[in-house]
Batch of 2 targets.
Target 1
Amino acid sequence: PAPHLQSYKNRAAKHSNPAARALLRCMEAKKSNLAVSVDVTTTKDFFDIIEAVAPYVCLIKTHVDILEDWNPGVTTRLQHLSREHNFLIFEDRKFADIGNTVALQYSSGLYKISSWAHIVNAHPVPGPSIITGLASVGMKLQEERGLLLLAEMSTKGALTIGSYTVEAVRMAREHRDFVIGFIAQHRMESIGLSGTDDVVDEDFLILAPGVGLDSKGDAMGQQYRTPTEVVTQCGCDVIIVGRGIIGIGRDIDAEKVKEQARRYQTAGWEAYEKRIVT
Ligand code: 5IU
């Protein structure tokens, strides 16, 4: 059966990439396909949110460059929490430069992303060299590391459509050791195949942002779909939720955040259970 019809557990047992295996195992263990996007600007809010949602998530998605008081201790503490609460870390860096530059952006600078992020993502726009550049860093580490390509975006008018998405999938198929899946809005198995090609052993994870239970979008082009649409109907594996859980006000209410995380975890898991057959 196609990957999205199989259990996360079965897929974990077969996957060739260690980061993908770790994520799928974590999802099964915690009964969670929820990633929380922690888009806040202070480390206090950042950790208040992570500590509130940790029991309910398989993945924490970060934008470390928006933290105004970032320091190296932040990523040390994040890694510690990741081990303590069993979740993976995804830095939503959206690399987009030539191979040599992205290798440096991934490994070096203030953030040294490759040293702590299990998963990162990249725009396919520069072509396959962006994958080989990032893989030259990630695959050398004796750690669980994987890359997601941005095959589709959730925003109104996104240019990630048609042949762009097809080429993104082709690029990923050429680098299945390091590319573990896509940021996308639906499954990609049927994309770019002639009908006779055989890629039955391919298992790309689909992580979908733009998920909300109470809102259809924001004032800046974001569009939301429900966990049922995203997971049951479109076959995505992980729901990425930001403001639906962390809120949009200034003050973080940890109890509310916890309650919303639990709500999205349940909705995401029920949507998954409705779609699997094995
Ligand atoms: N994000 C999207 N859409 C995309 C991609 C990334 O929303 O197509 I690629 C990011 C942006 C933000 C998070 O960090 O996912 C969604 O946050 P909200 O749930 O608050 O909209």
Note: DSSP finds ten helices and eight strands in the chain.
Target 2
Amino acid sequence: EEEKSLNFIEEIIEEDLRKGTHDGRVLTRFPPEPNGYLHIGHAKSICLNFGLGQKYNGLTNLRFDDTNPVTEDAEYVESIKRDIQWLGFQWAQELYTSDYFDTLYQYAVDLIKKGLAYVDDSTAEEIAASKGTPTEPGMPTPYRSRSVEDNLRLFQQMREGKYKDGEKVLRAKIDLANPNMHLRDPLLYRIRHVYHHRTGDKWCIYPMYDFAHGQSDSIEKITHSICTLEFIPHRPLYDWCIEKLEIFPSKQYEFARLNMTYTVMSKRKLLQLVNEKFVESWDDPRMPTISGLRRRGYTAASIRNFCDKIGVQKRENMIDVSLLEFCIREDLNKTAWRRMAVLDPIKLVITNYPEGQVEELTGENNPEAEGGEGSRRIPFTNQLWIERDDFMEEPPKKFFRLGVGLSVRLKHAYIVECHDFVKDADGKVIEVHCNYIPTSKSGEDTSGLKVKGTIHWISAPHAKEAEVRLYDRLFHDENPAAADDFKSSINPDSLQIINKAYIEPDLARAQAGKGYQFIRLGYFTLDTKSSPDHLVFNRTVTLKDSWAK
Ligand code: ATP
Ligand code: MG
Ligand code: MG
């Protein structure tokens, strides 16, 4: 194992451990809002938070940040749990910010009693105006000077449902001239008469992110609360609340979110792709979601490895999606079983091989693994399917495949030499005729012949059929989110469906979740919608980086 240098968060933690902060305890949390499926960006946060928990003998909580009942749903909760576990992590406790609503309410009452929060009847516009601008200080609204008694009564009435949405808010009383806009009397609570997927109709006031997040960290005694860079300006408010409430001093640290080329990474945008049917679902194999990547054939190990390679930075950057593809190729090259499939078939007839004879050849499952992980039987006959583009009527120089007078090796079988072909009435080639060399059988070749090309094939009478789905990038733009309309660069050809491909018979027993290398074509896996009567394979990734730069 190569020695890896510490990232800046590990340095902070190791310093805390040296100083004995929190008695050497490390407790992190992963705090998704259940308003969408997790994406590869979340994987970075998961690997970081759970990874730190593991590395420092600590723990990691899963906390659903469910303070916005309008957009949240139990379906998302379930998908998030499934994805984290699939990635290989287990939380110490499953928690919900909504479980802290009573405590958070008490905290708000505490602030009011300390003269540090007030009920404001202003409209949203008036409140925005009261905050001033980055260059101009704000001005108090008439409600800022309300008495503690009035504030306590009004806040309680807000809770009791006496007011309509937007009629009143609770604001912190901090500093309307603070250079940090987040400290200019930020909103702590708002009225929302909506049903919550966990608390039902118990509440009609809901805490704002800034009043819920840090306090939830503190309630759980989180030691290192790690979030993305855009929360840097929120940190003074995070610290202010904890200090004024005199509660456990969790600390917030910020790292750069993952941005990746040729995709979008915000749940809001991903939801639009689903709702507007640009993709089939959240787990469409073109989506950058964990569930989409899984369905596409990505392994958890490849995603963890990717997160490890990109590291943890303090500055925003853009990661090339080809790094993710590199990671899955590296993994599947070691683990995928080799098989043959023909996507665009043309018939090859071996004219000197006895009609009706079947020979059982063998092919190793995995030449990269010690012992090859066993082998499978491959039937061979004089009627084969090969790829249409492995034959050319007028082959150019250096075409090391088939054309009249050219020879190739059929993988795991014999060398064949093409001597003829047949066209249909439209002039389309429908058959390629070859002679095989009986002494050239793979593994026992005494022919002394050398050929440059090896092609894949399937015995036609034994071939099984499958639907095969090939994917391209979902967007043409390297950074679709930078455009006015991110949907303007959607690639209309991101999915190519091959309704009838031929696969070798053993693939009818393909296992869900396992990777297969279709020789020369890429890595494939069974789709979740595949059934024994209708096999469907997804191409995870091509064998080589074929993306033109
Ligand atoms: P989105 O913008 O996609 O809705 P979010 O930050 O609102 O993302 P949350 O559910 O709140 O989504 O995220 C849970 C955790 O995952 C947060 O701690 C957040 O910082 C982290 N996270 C979200 N997106 C990324 C990303 N692209 N890279 C790294 N971490 C991320
Ligand atoms: Mg969030
Ligand atoms: Mg969000």
Note: The chain has three domains: 8-255, 272-337+466-541, 341-456.
